[in-house]
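Q: What would this chain look like folded?
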Amino acid sequence: MYAAATAPLGYLLCNGGAVSRATYAALFAVIGTTYGVGDGATTFNVPDLRGRAPIGAGAGAGLTPHALAATGGAETVTLDTTMMPSHTHTSNAPGGQGNLGLVLADGTNTATATDASLGEIKVWDLPHALTINDTGGGLPHANMQPWLALNFIIKT
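A: My prediction, written as structure tokens:
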């Protein structure tokens, strides 16, 4: 890392630029076209770390392997339900009685309201329909660690 705007003598900025294979033969011998072929004949590309955080190539114990020169990550992420932990929502029904009385004539399933002495009174519980509304906007959220912009340099 380097805190100035231009690279010191003997270094190049890691800005993805195409540089001469002849002028920077020692560097080309080390990295070749790993970070880009340049024009395919006389130039090659240096790594481009502008706007990127470096990560070690290979794999540590229990970590995902990353190949040399691979890139990844995203500045924003939109979550969907498969990314959320399992959870529940609670809701309370509004207060009040939810019963309905109906008089049935003996031996039939026909309702009558004329004489309650003809039958028995049946009482049913009525379910209360509840709606749990969605919330949130479904928009991407920032996915960046706190940062400070510096230049990365590579020895030529």
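Strands lie at 11-13, 18-20, 43-45, 76-77, 99-105, 119-125, 141-142, 153-155.
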